[in-house]
Amino acid sequence: MDKDEIFNKRIDYISDFNFDEKVAAVFDDMLYRSVPFYQEIQRMIVEMAVDFAVEGTHIYDLGCSTGTTLFNINKAIGDKVKYIGIDYSEDMLDKCRKKLSENHFQGEYELVCEDLNKGIYAENASVIIMILTLQFIRPLYREKLIESIFKGLNSNGCFILVEKVLGEDSLFNRLFIKYYYDLKREKGYSELEITQKREALENVLIPYKLLENRELLLNQGFRYCDVFFKWYNFCGMVAVK
Question: What is the pTM of this model?
Answer without folding.
Answer: 0.96
